Amino acid sequence: MKRALELITDAGTGQLSHTKLWTNIAYAAATFAFLKLVISDRPPGIDLWLVYLGIVGAHNVTSKLLSMRFGGKT
Asked: What's 41's DSSP letter?
């Protein structure tokens, strides 16, 4: 359970992090919509794959870079 709480709490304070909470909700909603398309009769084209993976990947890379730059924990 502690590992699951790390998805929505601040590493330094242990308090609820609205940024982490809403980021994970957005990821879950986007993943659900994407998987719904993949399972449906009309799977997504390469452009949708690139957009989905680009958004998720870009957010993670940006988060790590900002963390390294400003010394925060992720």
From this structure: S
Sign of CA dihedral 2, 3, 5, 6: positive
Which tens digits make up the pLDDT trace of 17-33? 888 888 888 888 888 88
Identify the DSSP state of 56. H
Residues above pLDDT 70, as percent of the chain? 95
Total number of domains in the chain: 1
Give me 32's structure tokens.
Answer: 């659900």
Q: Which domain holds residue 63?
A: 2-70
Handedness of CA 71, 30, 19, 13 (dihedral sign): negative
